[in-house]
Amino acid sequence: MIEFKLPDVGEGMHEGEIIQWLIKEGDAVKQDQPIVEVQTDKVNAELTAPITGVVKNIFFSAGDTVEVGTTIFTIQEENEVSLKDEDRNESGGRQEQPGYEETNRVTSHGQLDAGRVLATPFVRQMAREMKIDLHQVKGTGPAGRIIESDLQQFVEISSVLQEHPDHNNDTILPEREPKKKAKQSKSAEAEPEERILLKGIRKKIAEHMVKSVSSIPHVTHVDELEMNALKELKDQLKVYSEDKEIKLTFLPFFVKAIVIALKEFQTLNASIDDKSNEIILKHYYHIGIATNTNEGLIVPVIKHADQKTIFQLADEIRQLATQAREGKLSLEQITGSTFTISNVGPIGGMHATPIINYPEAAILSLHKMEPRMVVRDLEGVIRLMMNMSLSFDHRLIDGVTAVQFTNRIKELLENPIRLVVEMR
To answer: Which cofactors (predicted)?
Structure first.
């Protein structure tokens, strides 16, 4: 009998939340077969069977939080099971596995589960709190994935059906608690409120932001750059990117310019080890790209960005963004960044004070691009302009260094021929 203990599947993870079991007690499983989904920092990880055998005991339920190192299930090796079966055959005993149930999982409403429901851990948690059976919900997200709005729509439809029971509908309604009447004050009716438990990805983001702000003295420097020459270069490269079926944006050019500048201003690509009181200068360039998803802000990482071409960066950025929004990123894809870019330009805004992605030393926020009146050679002209905001760790980086860093980025992007020449 082997005891399976919850491993540290993150970086220094202390606990994890059981999202769902993919097997039952008594199930025969193969080595490396997925057994359970566990919520880690911003991703959910599938833990697999260490051996081929039979699952004997499951000690926790979906929704339970478990400390690393705790036994979450036991599994009996295949050889051991076979020997016991042979012993029973010789003695005329029945060939049964204790605790064995039907192979098909049954939902709380008695419906057979034809397959795994596609939903992120955050949505699963919401469904449990709302007492919704996910197997009854139609997903409208990518590949049929269930998203938050699907749960809200399901509740609304269920409410209508409860009020009009004669309405024909084959959907099994969820078990719902009766609505509590809002308490009224003596003077006036209470204002409507909704309380949502802070948990899952949103809770992890909150903890990460608090740690960053409380540990790092933030300073933000704002500057602007002219984008006309870079836009002209991007337009010229469009025909080549289309031949490769790659959508080319401005972001890969920023990644390249930032990497060149990071190599010259190394403290921007560093971090502080507070325990050893050491500065860690990193001679590798893993660029995080902040990506907005339905479940919160995720930062997928482009590893060794200095070793990739503009087209390779464009393709990888697109793939990572898609995986982030579909909740398919692995832990490796969201860890290890040395510098982060937050591109809010498509949404809008002139400038911001972005929070550093701890334990990095800086983060660059890119804002909307628009035609503006500027002065060139003492004359007013219209140019395509963009603002950028650099937040940096003032323990590591002085204001002069921060300005020199952004000036270098401006030099490369406003004169993209220099960017091409200096690419490695």
So the answer is: (R)-lipoate
pTM of the model: 0.64
On whether the CB atoms of residues 305 and 287 are closer than 8 A, the answer is yes
Residue 29's alpha-carbon distances to 35, 53, 55, 85, in angstroms, are: 8, 6, 7, 17
Nearest to 410 by CA among 205, 261, 211, 288: 261
Using one digit for the tens of pLDDT, what is the confidence trace for 386-422? Answer: 999 999 999 999 999 999 999 999 999 999 999 988 8
- Of the candidates 327, 405, 364, 393, the one whose C-alpha atom is nearest the C-alpha of residue 251 is 364
How distant, in Å, are the alpha carbons of 106, 144, 146, 159, 246 from that of 176?
A: 19, 24, 19, 9, 47
Distance of CA 373 to the CA centre of its chain: 39
Q: In terms of DSSP H, where are the helices of 218-338?
A: 228-243, 251-264, 310-325
Domains in the chain, ordered, with CATH?
2-90 (2.40.50.100), 112-177 (4.10.320.10), 201-422 (3.30.559.10)
- Asked whether 53 and 75 are in contact (CB, 8 A), the reply is yes
| Pairing of the two strands 362-376 and 339-343 | parallel
Q: Are 392 and 410 in contact (CB under 8 A)?
A: no
Peptide bond between residue 300 and the one before it cis (omega within 30 degrees of 0) = no
Q: How far apart, in whole angstroms, are the C-alpha atoms of residue 405 and residue 259?
A: 11
Return the active site residues.
Answer: 394
